[in-house]
Amino acid sequence: MLHVNTPRQSLTNSSPIVDNEPERNVVREFGQRLMRRIALLPRPTNAVRSAIMRIRGASIGHGTSIPASTMCTWPHQLAIGKECIIQPDVFFNYDHYWTPGPSIQFGNHVFIGRGCEFNIRCQLNVGDDCLIASGVKMIDHDHGSDLGCLMRQQENNSKPISIKDNVWIGVNATILKGVTIGDGAIVAAASVVNRSIGPNEVWAGVPARMIRKRG
């Protein structure tokens, strides 16, 4: 028979405390059952997540839903049109002090792939019918580089980014400040775009350069 000393007995008795393995097993099994039940609880649906974002100030069009893993620092700065598809782990980051919005705007029928990041201080406008592949980054600001000033103390320089209609941006491409991408343009995967792109042009490379015109 197993014996477990009480705390008082342990202080007055030199015999060691005997572990009660059956009781530990009961506690362990209870914890495992509890975790299994928690795992079965319904998670917030996309509709619920979208409703929460709207309550917090985001403008979300009909037929567009927000995955549970979406991150957004200032929901009132976000406006997304109707019938858009947003994959998980997208980050909408308005990287500035509180101001009236929206500063991050998407049109209708836009696809945003997994893990995209929109890091905006000034303004981002994306038109209708655009495809933004996984891992794309759009950043409308950078640090200064003056000598004699610490990097962490440099001023941020911001210029708006504008993506027109029917644009396709390939996986892991980066769009930098001040860039305008014209209607029907294509940006190849892993490109870094630091200059504006004309309508129906195809660009690729680091830094990106035009390689041809569509059609």
Automatic annotation (TrEMBL):
Pfam family, one: Hexapep
UniProt cross-references to InterPro entries, sorted A to Z: Hexapep, Hexapep_transf_CS, Hexapeptide_acetyltransf, Trimer_LpxA-like_sf
CDD domains: LbH_MAT_like
GO terms for MF: acyltransferase activity
Key words, A-Z: Acyltransferase, Repeat, Transferase
SUPFAM superfamilies per the UniProt record, alphabetical: Trimeric LpxA-like enzymes
Superkingdom per UniProt: Bacteria
Alphabetical list of Gene3D superfamilies matching this protein: Hexapeptide repeat proteins
Keyword presence, Electron transport: no
PANTHER family the record matches: LIPOPOLYSACCHARIDE BIOSYNTHESIS O-ACETYL TRANSFERASE WBBJ-RELATED (PTHR23416:SF78), SIALIC ACID SYNTHASE-RELATED (PTHR23416)
Protein name: Galactoside acetyltransferase
